[in-house]
Amino acid sequence: MDFRQRLEELHTIGLLMASFEAELKKDRQLCSSLPSALANVEQAHLKRIEELQGQQQAMLDLISKLDNPTYRRLLLERYQNGRGWKEVADLIGYSLSNTYRLHKKALERLENINEQEAS
């Protein structure tokens, strides 16, 4: 999976975590009369939520290492909060075309940081 795909999954990971948490709540209610079944279901859900939180936190940690606050905000608004390009542009105070340009630079810088950490 390439780096940009990992970023694009950031918002989806948050939605998945919320879905697993809701499913866990529902399963707790369904399995309340079967404690051993509940424990197994709970463990499976909690493990998956923990894995997703780890993935999410790794990306957020990487984004936080960007030295440019505009790059950080742009990436967080776009990928963590799932905002559209126009809304991101308005939030960071740039035109849409400049936002695209900044996005490209932010991705390049983020990939450089990621490569430096990997080596």
Automatic annotation (TrEMBL):
Q: Which Gene3D superfamilies match?
A: 1.20.140.160
Protein name, per record: Phage protein
Query: Which organism is this protein's natural source?
Result: Streptococcus acidominimus
